[in-house]
Amino acid sequence: MDLLVFDLDGTLVDSTLDLANSVNATRVHLGLEPLPIPIVASYVGNGAPVLVRKSIGPDAGEEQLDYALTYFLSWYRDHMLEHTRPYPGVIDALDALAAAGQKMAVLTNKPVRFSQTLLAGLGMDRYFFRVYGGNSFPEKKPDPHGLRMLMQEAGVPPERTWMVGDSSVDVLTARNAGVACVGVTYGIQPESLETHKPDLLLDNLVALLPALRAASAR
Predict the structure, then answer these.
(1) Which end of the chain has fewer CB atoms surrounding its CB within 10 Å, N or C?
(2) Is 199 a catalytic residue?
């Protein structure tokens, strides 16, 4: 393939604890009890506003939600790199792909400024020619606009592009853009891949380059 587009949280990095801690700091600030980490993790994937809305609950008004989102983003900005690390095998996989001349980008629903800061803080920004976030375009994934923009910038057609992610959001994004999708089993929401199945499922990202080579040989 000529272009690989990666999701971020749950695919490249394990950010669950920092996201959960930020959500729970927000809840405590609002006088609410902390939520279990798996509950917060189940809310991840559709961007910060959705994460905060689900975490605060259906009874919150718009003013409280706006305040909670502002507090969450401020807290997360200062704490996003405390526990977040690349998943095992990710750096080895990216090194091998970069050495093979693979063009790579990131398309995430996390705010773009935070995504860029996180990747730079982990020394991973060097692998990607572009990083787009949930506020880079009018609509987030699974809307295909961001993926189509990356293909346009790279000069690569859909049939030469793979989307790599851990959730049904990524599969639907790929489908909406006419692109094949690779799912990973180790992420935040791999159970959602049972409903929307990717074209290929990997237990470790180090298997991606051999999979690419096998696809190119066919």
Answers:
(1) C
(2) no
Q: What is the separation of C-alpha 152 from the centre of its chain, rounded to a whole number of angstroms?
A: 21
What does pTM read for this prediction? 0.94
The amino acid occupying position 170 is D
Q: Tens of pLDDT along 149-194?
A: 999 999 999 999 999 999 999 999 999 999 999 999 999 988 899 9
38: buried, middle or exposed (CB in 10 Å: 19+, 13-18, 0-12)? exposed
Q: What are phi and psi of 63, to 5 degrees?
A: -65, -45
Give yes or no for a contact between 37 and 111, defined as CB atoms under 8 angstroms apart.
Answer: no
Can you tell me which residue has the tokens 């995430």? 108
Tokens standing for residue 150? 């990356």
SS (H, E, C) the chain: CCEEEECCECCCEECHHHHHHHHHHHHHHCCCCCCCHHHHHHCCCCCHHHHHHHHHCCCCCHHHHHHHHHHHHHHHHHHCCCCCEECCCHHHHHHHHHHCCCEEEEECCCCHHHHHHHHHHCCCHHHCCEEECCCCCCCCCCCCHHHHHHHHHHCCCHHHEEEEECCHHHHHHHHHHCCEEEEECCCCCHHHHHCCCCCEEECCHHHHHHHHHHHHHC
Distance from C-alpha of 121 to C-alpha of 109, rounded to nearest angstrom: 19
